[in-house]
Design a protein that fits this description.
Blueprint (H helix, E strand, L loop, with lengths): L1 H6 L9 E5 L11 H5 L8 H12 L3 H8 L17 H4 L2 H4 L12 H6 L15 H5 L3 E9 L3 H13 L4 E10 L9 H17 L1
Parallel strand pairs: 1-2, 2-3
Helix pairs in contact: 3-4
Length: about 200
């Protein structure tokens, strides 16, 4: 959406920053190391994440099932995998000995019915480098115990390669939703880091 706003000649406001707090950024590969490591970890399990994603596009459970087994992307869209190839986009510390497996291609049927799951408006990680290059100063929070961890980290890598000024704050003891846990040390720490960054960059 931010890329669209930047490219829209009718939008006169110049965006100064974008902030992403443990963001969900792609539906192409649901078998990242963070999905494997935290598949059963509440509050956001892998199956729940897949369900949320699929219901964003349709109530057809066949899409959810295909996404759960990483068999939802048609061969015609294979060129997009380079944008989410964690074997080249994740620092070694986050690979943890995991082996990269190319997702199994699905049929074109689901994509024809529900093309939204490969739309960059829903999945910003699928944007090409030219689009990323135009983005404003960016702040990204990721948490170790979160299925979405690697989405954020791969986005940071791609933004840096595209020349965007980005601050990445990773919390080794963090989990999805931690910022909303008032009174918890980790929640307070995430909020304080974020507010400090906002004060410096707004």
């Amino acid at each position: 959406i931010i890329s669209q706003l930047i490219d829209d000649p009718d939008v006169k406001i110049k965006l100064k920053i974008q902030s992403l707090i443990y963001p969900a950024l792609q539906t192409l590969d649901m078998d990242l190391p963070s999905y494997r490591d935290n598949a059963l970890l509440p509050p956001l399990t892998k199956s729940l994440t897949v369900r949320f994603w699929s219901e964003y596009f349709t109530t057809d459970r066949s899409l959810e099932k295909a996404m759960l087994f990483n068999q939802h992307t048609p061969v015609e869209s294979a060129q997009l995998f380079k944008f989410v190839n964690w074997s080249s986009l994740l620092p070694e510390i986050f690979k943890k000995g995991h082996l990269y497996k190319s997702p199994t291609h699905g049929t074109s049927e689901l994509f024809k019915k529900y093309p939204g799951f490969l739309d960059v408006r829903a999945a910003p990680l699928l944007a090409d480098d030219n689009k990323l290059h135009s983005l404003p100063v960016t702040y990204v929070i990721t948490c170790q115990y979160d299925v979405l961890r690697d989405d954020g980290i791969m986005y940071v890598t791609r933004l840096q390669k595209a020349g965007v000024r980005v601050t990445h704050q990773h919390f080794e003891d963090g989990f999805h939703g931690a910022i909303t846990y008032h009174g918890f040390k980790i929640g307070d720490r995430i909020k304080n880091h974020y507010l400090s960054w906002l004060n410096e960059n707004l």
